[in-house]
Amino acid sequence: MEEKDMNKPQSNHVNENSKDKQLEHFREDGKDQYMTTDQGLRINHTDDSLKAGQRGPTLMEDFHFREKMTHLDHESIPERVVHARGSAAHGYFQPYDSSLKQYTKARFLTDPNTKTPVFVRFSTVVGSRGSADTVRDVRGFATKFYTEEGNYDLVGNNIPVFFIQDGIKFPDLVHSIKPEADNEMPQASAAHDTFWDFASLMPETTHMLMWVLSDRAIPRSFRMMDGFGVHTFRFVNEQGKGTFVKFHWRPTYGAHSLVWDEAQKLAGKDPDWLRRDLWESIEMGDYPEFELSVQLVPEEDEFKYDFDLLDATKIIPEELVPRRPVGKMVLNRNPDNFFAETEQVAFHPGNLVPGIDVTNDPLLQGRLFSYLDTQLNRFTSVNFTEVPINRPVVPVHNHHGAGFMKMTIGKGKANYWPNSIGNGCPMMAPENMGGYVHYMEKVEGHKIRARSESFNDHYSQATLFWNSLTEPEKEHLVSAAHFELGKVENKEIRRRQVANFYKVDPQFAALVAAGIGIEMPVDQDAESTGNYVEDTASQKISKGKSVQESPTVSMEKNKVETAKSRRVAILIEDGFDYNEVMQVKESIEAAGAHAKIVSKLQGKRISSTGQELEVDKSHVTTGSIMFDAVYIPDGEKSVRKMMGLGDALHFVSEAFKHCKPIATSGFGINLLERAFVMGVNFAEKESGKVVSHSGVVTAGSDADAGEFAKNFLEAIKKHRHWDRERHMTPA
Ligand code: HDE
Known about the structure:
By secondary structure, this protein is an alpha/beta fold. The chain folds into 3 domains: 50-188 and 219-384, Catalase HpII,  Chain A, domain 1, CATH 2.40.180; 456-557, Hemocyanin, N-terminal domain; 561-726, 3-Layer(aba) Sandwich (Rossmann fold). Strands 1, 2, 3, 4, 5, 6, 7, 8, 9 and 10 form a 10-stranded antiparallel β-sheet that branches. A 7-stranded mixed β-sheet has the order 17-14-13-18-19-21-20, sandwiched between helices. Strands 11-12 form a two-stranded parallel ribbon. Helix 4 runs antiparallel to helix 5. The protein is globular. The relative contact order is 0.10. CIS-heme D hydroxychlorin gamma-spirolactone 17R, 18S (HDE) binds at residues 80-83, 86, 121, 123, 140, 142, 155-157, 162, 167, 170, 230, 312, 345-347, 363, 366-367, 370-371, 374.
């Protein structure tokens, strides 16, 4: 399939008339380069309004002024009520083979020769459009597949579970987590009383809270985060047989996070950190790539597990059902226009194609109502589907009528079905022509406002998550809880949450309690507030399979070691060692990392042997938090100058504190000492040795630059050296 051209009309309804031909002549005459009004009238002056005399009042008849101003006045639509801040990219998805055919008839997942165009929007959930990127929050990961059978939307998150089990709790959740109703504080953060009040009263949030307090909620990059469909969906094959399915995205760069101190500082220094990273990476050709995989559960196994497949607060541990790779998505084009594409894209988990269907997950069912409804608020029209970014690549034929923003021009009289005047068109598509047939699930039951008892266990998988983390990950989670709950003013809320955490793991609860002034043991009577009802499904489920640990949920245990697209700062002043810089720079760039020269001031720096290097960033425009690794080349004069520069010393000590790889040689070791890089072994300054300790790579002045660079690269590939946090005391 050709890549989708968003500027071309995608629908048959559009009148292919002589206007297009006229436009071509116009272009040939070179007349289409001029500014015009909306009516196409060319403008000869846009810097002054039309006045009665040079110093007189502006005249109402100034149609150009009025039009220009009116447009500005109307240049906004309501932001999304959640996921308001986002950034997006175009790309394609291609399956590896046709092996999923026995489970699904979805062609875009089973035809390895089809490259399906996609548009992916990543987002934070809580903050407004102008909020910072690096806040602690869930990230949205929404993909629109423009398939030959219509648009399919996989509207997921970077965390595999959700806070609540039933869609009807969503307005409560959102109200509690958004800025508080009376004072609109805090922005973009969950660290406040109303959220933790709600969460502590709703034990079903516990599993998700563990993920949100983990490093998953502060991703290093949109390119370095997992994605999850969250709900159990249903595949349907040609024979109409259903199979339960969970969707996963895994980035080829691996999932990596920031550290909390860094995330907070970035929110000030570069609030656009994640969107800039996405944009720049695509511009540089470091295309983000994600592998799609699925977990499949035969319908016969629906009750085989000790959790309910329809409960969105549960994962299916990969130890029970392994992931099966399906294909790869590559994001290779930035949007042309933020508003037209990223802002106007409208996702809906109910946008399905033949071969994929929904299940009775009550959270998913709630979403099926909300997404169309919310677009009506954003666009004040049902015709948002005609906006180019939302149009399918296939022709659209139906009898929808008039309304705001109607773009397509339907032809003829017969706008109803059945009709004979329009030759019965458009016709109904039989199933073998891609006509969508809902999965024939047998449904019966009493009307009841209640929840299945099989949704009742809120703690086992939270414990599973805790058990599966590495020690550094656990420590980060506890400090995140100290921050989040430490911001909660009401002590009773803090206590109640610790009581919930006690049910996850008493030791974890004690660690949290110690940081927020809550005494242990806490009262264990906190009761769940769910409204449960016994049913046969839950009785079957309670006897099902479970695991105590699931290493696949830990980012650290599944780290991808690559230097590709990592950013390395090279700190220099006049007098640096040119040959060494060039050799180290070459090897890290050969591994796909990007090196930038950082110095006190912008301009050119002169090496000890007279060569010049252009500075990319000055200390005031950047900081260690904007890099993944730091390198200080040898060169006595250069290093001596930095030893007297607060910014340079701070750069190094902060990178050390954030467990980032640091490399230096010869005289540069003095800078490390001055910057309080302590607790690691350095090479002898005058020796020929290279020493690599806990991500700090040092080389004596006679050491081999190649070996030095190799060691530095190894340290970069490991990303963070968490052992520093435990055994060393940084500045
Ligand atoms: Fe959403 N969600 N959501 N959500 N969601 C929206 O739709 C909603 C949920 C997700 O980049 C809204 O177009 C309800 C789970 C993403 O444009 C809204 C419930 C998951 C995005 C809405 C959920 C998501 C949204 C706001 C519980 C992960 C951003 C703007 C029943 C599987 C899409 C919009 C984009 C956006 C409703 C729960 C992911 C209000 C009612 C679970 C990635 O319709």
